[in-house]
Amino acid sequence: MSRIAFLMPTLNAQTYLAEAIGSLQRQSHEEFDLFVLDGGSTDATVDICRALQKQDGRITILSTPATGAARRLNDALDNLPHEYLLIAHADDVSVRERAGRQVAFMRQSPELILSGSNTHYWLHEKSEALDINHYSGFKTYPAGHAEIRCQLPFWWSLSTPSLILNGIAVREKSLRFDDTLRVAADWWFYWQATQAGRVANLQEPLISYRHRYGSDGTSQRPLLAQEVPLVRERIARDAGFWPLLSPTEATAFLAMDVESNRIVAIGDRAATGALMARLAKWDAKSGGFQADAWQRMIARHMWRVKWLWLRYAPLRRIGRMLAGD
């Protein structure tokens, strides 16, 4: 048995599965096991895996029908003894050097409980339903533990299909994905990891994320609308600043539209400004986050709010004129 394993959750993933697995078979680091975690596919997913398994003894199929991806990943975390566990999605492509680079990085930084990488977002299809505004091209994630942790109350700051986990540390700390969450289980998992140890992101793209409607958050907006505020509040409570927020500030915090390191929609500018001022003062007193990283994050968000407000001021004036205000 290898000390390294790829975990690939699947559910009716036949279209791109062979390509995704092929990118793992061609890894420069050849010694690994691949566990396909199938949730009860009714298409050709399992047949494709069985055919590939006959050619490659590194592939194992673990089928647990009618279970979500979070539950299947948890089962793997509970039962696989591998030192390092890498997550791969069934429609994405890992670069040839991915496993080698990530394993070497983790071994050089034994304090890390997990790490990810930057991502190449691959616009696979165009449709009116697909939001491509912030997904085309290369996407960067914060590099260090302090920056990642500061960003997490607002948004995901790691990319799940680029993750490598220290399996020993994850088992010792009993870290698990919350299987009551359908689209944000990884977000809460990241936060728990920053509480239990240290995390990081390699600043190079090691996966190509196939951006298509069927596998992207764009197709899950109703679920995101439910779970984003839920996880934000949970993190805010765990961090300790939720009780300090006024009702208006709490509403602004839960409604912020944030993508990576920038605010996409400013919502209520005054409430957002008050929220950021409150969070800056809270951290200065409590030391809940690494001070410099937290203040830089606050300043970055506030600059974005101010810039958007100034940029769209003429449009707001025109709107008020047309409305007769």
Structure description:
This protein has two domains: 4-219, Spore Coat Polysaccharide Biosynthesis Protein SpsA, Chain A, CATH 3.90.550.10; 240-314, no CATH class. Helices cover 46% and strands 19% of the residues. It is built from twelve helices and eleven strands. Strands 1, 2, 3, 4, 5, 6, 7, 8 and 9 form a nine-stranded mixed beta sheet that branches. β10 (257-259) and β11 form a beta hairpin.
Number of helices: 12
CATH class of the largest domain: Alpha Beta
Quick one: overall form? elongated
Instruction: Average the pLDDT over all residues and give the rounded result.
Output: 86
Following the backbone from N to C, one meets helices and strands in this order, namely EHEHEHEEHEEHEHHEHHEEHHH
Short description:
With 325 residues, the protein is α/β, with parallel strands linked by helices. It has helices at 14-25, 45-55, 69-79, 98-108, 145-151, 167-172, 185-196, 221-239, 247-255, 269-286, 291-311, 313-323, and strands spanning 4-10, 33-38, 59-63, 84-87, 93-94, 112-123, 137-139, 164-166, 198-211, 257-259, 262-265. The protein folds into 2 domains: 4-219, Alpha-Beta Complex (Spore Coat Polysaccharide Biosynthesis Protein SpsA, Chain A), CATH 3.90.550.10; 240-314, no CATH class.
